[in-house]
Amino acid sequence: MLTADAADLDDDELARLYDYPRESWLRANFVASADGAAFLDGRSGGLSSAADRRLFGVLRALADVVLVGAGTARAEKYKPARRRPEHAPLRAGRAATPPIALVSRGLDLDLTAPLFTDAPPDARTIVITCAASPGARRAATAQVADVIVAGDTAVDLAAALASLRDRGLGRVLCEGGPTLLAHLTADGLANELCLTISPVLAGPGAARITAGASFPARQLALVHVLRAEGALFCRYLM
To answer: What is the pTM of this model?
Structure first.
C-alpha cells in the first residue's frame, strides 16, 4: 500500500494512481471531517482545501461523466465542469470536460442556471429521471439538457448507468450527495470510494456521507493513502 505526500506528485502521477481499472466503473469522491461530518455550514466546500481541489480536478479529468444528485447540485451551486488546459492530455479523444449527469425524480430544477445555460455542446448536461416525473417538466428539461428516463416510479440507478454506458460514458465519478451514495451502495453499483478526511472537527449533528437508504455494513479495501495540508486522501475499493 502506497503512503505518500500528494505535494510530491505531479498531476500525471496522480492520474496514474487514480486511473480507472476498466471502462465500466463507478467511483465516488467525498470529503468528511475527522469526526465524520459530510458538510460544514451546509456545504462540503467548507471541508475542502487546495490539495483536495487539485485532486478533485484530476478525478474529473479522468472521468467520462460526473454523477450528482439534484439536492447536492443546488446546495453546491453546480456549474458545468471547468476546462483546465493542464488536464487536456487526460481528456485526449474525449470532450474537453466531462458532462454533469443530474439525478432528479421530480425535476424541480432551475433550467436557467449555469449548469444548463453554460454547458458546452459536446458536454451537455444530462438529467436522469423516472417515468413518474411530470411530463411538462420533462419536456422543458429536454430543451436545455439531455434527458434519460430510467425506472417507473423512482429512478432506477442500474438502468441509468447502463444508459450512460450506451453513450460511451462508462467511467463514472459520483460527487454526491449522501442519499445518492447510499442508494448506489445499497444496489451494489459503486466500485470505489475516494474519501478525503479533513483535519476539522465539525461537532455533533452533521450528516454523514451516506443517508436515506439502508445497507449492511461493508468492508472496504484500502488501496492507498496520500496526505497534504493535514488532510488524508484515502482510496478504497468497495
So the answer is: 0.95
- Report CA-CA distances (Å) from 186 to 40, 138, 180, 181: 25, 27, 10, 8
pLDDT of 83 > 90? The answer is yes
Beta-bridge mates of residue 233? 196, 226
Q: Is the pLDDT of residue 45 over 80?
A: no
Instruction: Name residue, grid cell 444530462.
Output: 126
Q: What is the pLDDT of residues 144-155, one digit of tens each?
A: 999 999 999 999
Mean pLDDT calculated for residue range 40-57: 87
CATH number of this structure's domain 2-237, picked from the four choices 3.40.430.10, 1.10.3720.10, 2.30.110.10, 3.90.226.10: 3.40.430.10
Domain borders along the chain are: 2-237
Dihedral sign for Cα 37, 43, 49, 54, please: positive
Handedness of CA 53, 56, 62, 68 (dihedral sign): negative
Residue 194: closest CA among 62, 69, 104, 10: 62
Q: How far apart are CA 177 and CA 66, in angstroms?
A: 12
Residue 30: strand, helix, or coil? strand
Distances (CA, A) of 173 to 20, 34, 115, 118: 10, 23, 17, 20
